[in-house]
């Protein structure tokens, strides 16, 4: 995408300059954190505990289930079940609160996408012809997704993003933020 077009800024203008600004700020944070003195707060473990890792794993399993079931169950049922799963299994909330949040969130998202943005949402298999060529399409798209995700460019960008994210995530642990001019 070009950063500019003949009539004004193109579609690549904003992402490019946001990336430049974020890189400059990350560099400033990294340099300022490098020059700070370490404190006792820096001796805490960097990795999350077992409870946090379990919660992360449960969320990832729920997301995988959501993705796999959205074509079969449809948007409304799948989203409702996903929110109930997150609130009841991951967060261990009470049933009244869980059901209330699931209904309100599902309804609000349905109204936003279906009516305000006028985007067609996946229907259930009872309301559409799911069992035809759609299964073949699902597997073809899944294989295409793995192919694109495993391309060397995407793996390289993923590595760079993880490296930069890790460096920026470590910055608060290097020293106190009180010495930073920002």
Describe the fold and architecture.
Strand 1 and strand 2 form a beta hairpin. This protein has helices at residues 13-34, 50-73, 75-90, 95-116, 134-149, 152-174, and strands at residues 4-5, 8-9. Helix 1 (13-34) runs parallel beside helix 6 and helix 3 packs antiparallel against helix 4 (95-116). The chain has a two-stranded antiparallel ribbon with strand order 1-2. Among the domains are: 47-125, no CATH class; 129-159. By secondary structure, it is mainly alpha-helical. The protein is 68% helix and 2% strand. The chain starts with a strand and ends in an 8-residue tail after the last helix. The model has no long low-confidence stretch (mean pLDDT 77). The protein is built from 6 helices and 2 strands.
Radius of gyration: 22 Å
Question: Averaged pLDDT, please?
Answer: 77
> What is the number of helices?
6
Element pattern in H and E: EEHHHHHH
Q: What form results from the Cα inertia axes?
A: extended
How far apart the termini lie comes to 33 Å
Would you identify the regions where 5 or more consecutive residues have pLDDT less than 50? none
Q: What is the topology, as strand order, of the major beta sheet?
A: 1-2
- Residues in helices, as a percent range: 55-70%
**Proportion of strand residues:** under 5%
Question: How do you describe this structure in short?
Answer:
By secondary structure, this protein is mostly helical. It has six helices and two strands; from the N terminus they run ββαααααα.
